[in-house]
Write a structure and sequence with these properties.
The protein has 2 domains: 149 residues, P-loop containing nucleotide triphosphate hydrolases (Rossmann fold); 35 residues. The protein contains 5 helices and 7 strands. The protein has a 7-stranded mixed sheet, with helices on both faces. The longest helix has 20 residues. The radius of gyration is 21 Å and the shape is globular.
């Protein structure tokens, strides 16, 4: 699945809502992990961080520029080797969220395509990007693509104003037993 659109359009929010629909609210219980990878036939090490829940891994491999291919392949192989994953819906796979998928190197995009084909049984992917046309990954993978339109300033400020009004009304009330019915209305 691919979520694309400009910054602030809610791509990641939609991805997490999608995951919560499949796995439940446990997808929001994240922990950050720092990892070190030593690619084969090299003396260098690559440090990167990921966010994990029991059901998914979120990462931004483009932060490591030319090492993004190694990071993606390592994480996907790790996910694929753990095939004991269960969700409330009985699905036996884990989801990998890749942020800034359009900023991956061409080498990483090619590796991602091959990796997606190889490990599709145990690993599903959500790609988040600003421009879907900069990414060659989804072109023939049958990915579901969801556009996130830019936020509308008038529509996005209305809930904020509404929320501010509720907070102001709440702050004006005094907390004692006589006001409890008033609190219940708000």
């Amino acid at each position: 699945m691919i979520f694309y659109g400009p910054d602030g359009a809610g791509k990641k929010t939609r991805a997490y809502a999608f995951l919560a629909r499949i796995f439940g609210d446990h997808v929001f219980k994240l922990k950050e992990e720092e990892r070190v990878l030593k690619p084969e036939n090299t003396s260098t090490t690559i440090e990167y961080s990921i966010f994990t829940s029991n059901y998914h891994i979120e990462m931004t491999p483009s932060d490591n520029e030319h090492n993004d291919r190694h990071i993606i392949q390592n994480v996907v192989k790790e996910i694929a080797s753990n095939n004991n994953i269960e969700s409330k819906s009985g699905r036996g796979f884990k989801v990998l969220i890749i942020n800034e998928a359009d900023k991956l190197t061409k080498d990483a995009q090619g590796g991602l395509r091959r990796t997606m084909e190889k490990y599709i049984k145990n690993c599903r992917m959500i790609l988040i990007c600003n421009n879907v046309h900069n990414s060659s990954v989804p072109s023939d993978q049958g990915a579901s693509i969801s556009a996130s339109p830019p936020p509308n300033k008038m529509k996005s400020s209305k809930p904020l104003r509404s929320g501010q009004n509720r907070v102001q009304r709440f702050q004006q009330l005094r907390l004692h037993a006589g006001n409890l019915p008033e609190y219940a209305k708000n």
